[in-house]
Amino acid sequence: MQTVTIAGHQVPAIGLGTWHMGDEPSLEKQEIEAIHAGVAAGAKVIDTAEMYGSGRAETLVGKAIKDIPREKLFLISKVLPTNASKDRMERSLDASLERLGVDEVDLYLYHWRGTTPLVETVAELQRLTEVGKTKAWGISNFDVADLEELWQLPNGSKAAANEDLFNLGSRGVEYSLLDWQADHKLPFIAYSPVGAPDQINTHLGSNPNVLEVARRHHASAYQVLLAWVVGHQQVLAIPQSSNAEHAKENVLAADIQLTSDDLNLLDEAYPAPTEKLPLDVL
């Protein structure tokens, strides 16, 4: 199984996303079972955020992990831009920790840039790391220019990861961002790695070329899409599923090794970018 190293921790390259989970009480049991199935299949990373369902996703994760040994998990949460100031961030993190039922998260991300000066946000992220409420901090929805600005700040280069939208139908980060992060030893976390409803390319899994590669590997189309994402250097994918069997299949996709012929077929359907594009966000 492919792995990624984040903040000194080696984790399987496919984790569990939780966006849109926890919103529907009638699905709680099923969603908890999906998280359990993903962890049982080998996932270690669970990615959530205070924004997701205004804390409901974190509450769901807390229920799901209460009987799982803490050392078996790598927990990621995120702070909203409106709470990313010196005055508000610790309160936000404390609330996330309470919903999750843990004393610390492994990685705390600045969800996207807001009006708080970046230098202030970074200073507070670093302070919360030093007091032990998070083991590491990072950023999300940052592009190359944002990261270059970040790297100029005190402690800015201590960022442990950057999380952005990345999938076969949204390849803009391949033009320069992935290389920048590789050069600076900054791991990349891919959200919506099999596509997302709000994207133009919403039917990646039904593309004939994707289906042909899936047939070759006796895999599902979604497994091929995930294998493609984590085939990139130091890229962690966090697909979301509320179905236990799908969650398991997602994690096992890290075992699929795509061939050069496979990659050519996927490139034919969804070509790599030939110029810098605006960062895709959801």
Would you tell me the overall average pLDDT? 96
Compressed to H and E, one letter per element, the order equals: EEEHEHEHEHEHEHEHHEHH
Strand order of the largest sheet: 3-4-5-6-7-8-9-10
Overall CATH architecture: Alpha-Beta Barrel
Distance between the termini: 29 Å
Coarse morphology: globular
How would you characterize the largest beta sheet? 8 strands, parallel
Oligomer: single chain
Protein name: Aldo/keto reductase
Organism: Secundilactobacillus angelensis
Domain NADP-dependent oxidoreductase: 13-270
Protein model, in words:
This protein is an alpha/beta fold and 282 residues long. It has one domain (8-197, 228-254): TIM Barrel (Alpha-Beta Barrel). Helices cover 36% and strands 13% of the residues. The protein is built from 10 helices and 10 strands. The protein has helices spanning 28-40, 56-65, 89-100, 118-130, 144-151, 177-183, 208-217, 221-230, 244-252, 260-269, and strands spanning 3-6, 9-12, 16-17, 45-47, 74-79, 107-110, 137-140, 162-165, 188-191, 235-237. It has an 8-stranded parallel β-sheet. Strands 1-2 form a two-stranded antiparallel sheet. It is globular, with a radius of gyration of 18 Å.
SSE blueprint:
Blueprint lengths: L2 E4 L2 E4 L3 E2 L10 H13 L4 E3 L8 H10 L8 E6 L9 H12 L6 E4 L7 H13 L6 E4 L3 H8 L10 E4 L11 H7 L4 E4 L16 H10 L3 H10 L4 E3 L6 H9 L7 H10 L13
Parallel strand pairs: 3-4, 4-5, 5-6, 6-7, 7-8, 8-9, 9-10
Antiparallel strand pairs: 1-2
Helix pairs in contact: 1-2, 1-9, 7-8, 7-10
Pfam family, one: Aldo_ket_red
InterPro entries: AKR, NAD(P)_OxRdtase_dom_sf, NADP_OxRdtase_dom
Protein name: Aldo/keto reductase
